[in-house]
Amino acid sequence: MNLDRAAILLVNPKTNNLENKAVKFREEPLADEHFYSKKITDTVRKTGNALLTADAQADERFEGSESILCQAIHASMCAPLKLRDSVIGVLYVDNLSLSDIYSPEDVEFLAALANQAAIAIDNAELYKRMQEEAVIRNKLERFFPPAVSRKLREEGKLGIVESEVTALFSDITRFTEMSSRMQPRQVISMLNEYFKQMVEEIVFPFEGTLEKYIGDALVAVWGSPYSRHDDVDRAVRAAIEMQWTVDRMNQQWKQRYGEPIYIHIGLNTGQVAAGNIGSSKMIQYTHIGDTMNVASRICSAAQKNEILISQSTFDQLKDRSLPLEKIPPVLVKGKTEPLQLYRLHWQEVQSTVLSF
């Protein structure tokens, strides 16, 4: 088509301005890639109609345009990149030396080309968004049991909602002191093995949601994103199995790492705000509220090998056959009144997890 230069400009959805996305030169590239006339491109974007000018420097429509004079623009054409009724950008072409070289048929061809380009660009953007959402979804689904992950794929994103959950905080007792006597590689190996058993063999089978790891600590909840009538019992049973699993794993760890580990667990039930929190590229399903803070404090109050549950968890526990001991109220950080807690004698409850 006897073109010297061509450019694709797309609308930035954040600034609503046309931005240079691709350029092509017949000869060597120019230092200034913003060679096009802003008046021409803005006019085409605003009207949604293709534009032909035989000689831009003599065209009264663009009188006073400094870019046309400075860039020595002569014959030019510009067509909108349209998707239905929306203009997402423009396709601009010109000639630096010749005038009156483009015909209405050339404009029609350029407009048709621009329409195809608009569809291709839209498809590429859609594919990119789908890939980004897939990455986010895959990251998010790692925190849910398989059944919940399937439901997430069916229903899409999770919004922020208020819900009642039972939160479980589990921590390795005196982990800092123990890890100081081990090689860093040994510590990582041990934690990976430990978390794999805690999450894949206990939290997920009991239909819990893994929220996060905090160093050697683990945070899981029951009742979010989907609730069940026996969430409290599932959380308590999971805590029991965690203790039994660590007890069994210690038989190997004594030989492998030179010493056993012990964990302490705290559980609390109450209202939280739950949902996706973070940026578009780094997202986490999180639970916010005093319920989570109290569960953390209860875990801190628990001693080696202990499981402590709050009054709210005790009140909603359906299985009254569990060996629970009411202990004297405990004052925890952040609370003016002491908490009534219950110690669960898990050693008196038979383990039901056989996959270790």
List the helices and strands and how they pair.
Layout: E1 5-11, E2 18-25, H1 38-47, E3 51-53, H2 66-70, E4 76-83, E5 86-94, H3 104-141, H4 146-155, E6 161-172, H5 175-179, H6 184-203, E7 209-214, E8 217-222, H7 231-256, E9 263-278, E10 283-288, H8 290-301, E11 307-310, H9 311-316, E12 324-326, E13 341-344
Parallel strand pairs: 9-11
Antiparallel strand pairs: 1-2, 1-5, 3-4, 4-5, 6-8, 6-9, 7-8, 9-10, 11-13, 12-13
Helix pairs in contact: 6-7
Structural class by sheet pairing and helices: alpha+beta
Q: How many beta-strand elements?
A: 13
Provide the residue-averaged pLDDT.
86
Estimate what percentage of residues fall within beta strands: 25-35%
* Helix-strand topology string: EEHEHEEHHEHHEEHEEHEHEE
Distance between the termini: 72 Å
Radius of gyration: 32 Å
Largest sheet: 8 strands, mixed
Instruction: Report the principal-axis shape.
Output: elongated
Helical percent range? Answer: 25-40%
Q: Which ranges are low-confidence, i.e. pLDDT below 50, for 5 or more consecutive residues?
A: none
Number of helices: 9
